Amino acid sequence: MFLKKYHIVIFKDKKGSCSKIQLRGWALCSLLLVLGLLAAGNVLLLRYYLSHEQLEKNLELSEKTLEEQKTQLLSLSQKIAGLQKNLTRIRDFDSKLRVMINLDQDNAQTMTARGGSVTTDFSKGYLPLHRHELLARKMHGFLEQLNVDATLEEVRQQEVLGRLESNSGILLSTPSVWPTTGWVTSGFGNRKSPFTGQEEFHRGLDISAPRGTPIYAPASGRVVAADKDGSNGLTLVLSHSPNISTRYSHLQRIAVKPGDMIKRGDLVAFVGDTGRSTGPHLHYEVLLAGVPQNPLHYILN
Predict the structure, then answer these.
(1) How many domains, in total, are found in the chain?
(2) Do 33 and 89 belong to one domain?
(3) Using CA atoms, how far apart are residues 131 and 121, in angstroms rounded to an integer?
(4) Do 19 and 85 belong to one domain?
């Protein structure tokens, strides 16, 4: 079979002219084999092309899905960071209330420690992670911890509310608002004296404001002193409770007199620069049993 001769006749036109090709059997088989291999190769290439096209579509879809997940994770992390800031703000408010009502804060700190309070910034701790699965797990863990902290904070708030309900007038007699408008130029604590340059303890807040700016009572109480006080100039002292009083120095004018009963928001004096002063401002002090306290610990607004 392989040694036989085969003739392939090719007709050129309708007149009967033709061409003959003579092939051995093995050559014809080889030609057919080559043609079969070429056909099979084309089929494989077509399948590969279709498969490659499908893979490209899947890759594009996966990249789109991954980008959407990334956007969602970033959005979630921002919301979590916002929740953390709100919780911190609530804790600060709670601390101020506890100072005002003399409620023990050691218990609150212990509760926070047991809850494992989250103090690190979530965006700094987790956003640099590139593995989304790990990022998602950490987010869930953070949310669980945030839920625990929120529950503990609710318990603390109930404790504060219980104390307030038992003494409804305590807030009225607490200096919890700013006495005047302006900006703080010197805070409570150690500072350099503007006169000597030496280290000294500043007993209150210096609130800079134009001369004649009204000063209002930050809490209800009674006027106990209204007179000149050496380097402090014209000074006013208000008593709000048996333990808490406030002092106002360097005044231009006092609008009340000793013995007057005042309510929160009543006009009591005006900003000046009497006494030893570098310019118009209010020196404001909060005293607890005669000991100066940081007024910012009481101010809520």
Answers:
(1) 3
(2) no
(3) 19
(4) no
CA distance 277 to 232: 8
> Which residue, 256, 267, 171, 253, is CA-closest to 219?
171
Q: Would the CA dihedral through 140, 142, 144, 147 be positive or negative?
A: negative
CA distances (Å), 194 to each of 83, 86, 202, 278, 292, in order? 42, 38, 11, 8, 20
Within a domain: residue 44? yes
Does the structure show a pLDDT above 90 at 196? no
State pLDDT tens for residues 105-164.
544 444 444 444 444 444 444 444 445 666 666 777 777 777 777 777 777 777 766 666
Q: Tell me, yes or no, whether 70 and 144 share the same domain.
A: yes
102 and 16, same structural domain? Answer: no
CA–CA distances in Å: residue 201 to residues 39, 67, 279:
97, 56, 20
pTM, two decimal places: 0.54
Q: CA Rg, the chain, in Å?
A: 43
The 10s digit of each residue's pLDDT in 249-286 is: 999 999 999 999 999 999 999 999 999 888 999 999 99
pLDDT tens by residue, 41-87: 888 888 888 888 888 888 888 888 777 777 777 777 777 777 777 77
Q: How many CB atoms lie within 10 A of CB 204?
A: 22
Q: Domain range spanning residue 29?
A: 5-59
In 3-state terms, what secondary structure has residue 269? strand
Q: Is 261:239 a contact under the CB 8 Å cutoff?
A: no
What are the angstrom distances between the C-alpha of 118 and each of 67, 88, 113? 29, 10, 10
Task: Write down the mean pLDDT value for the chain.
Answer: 79
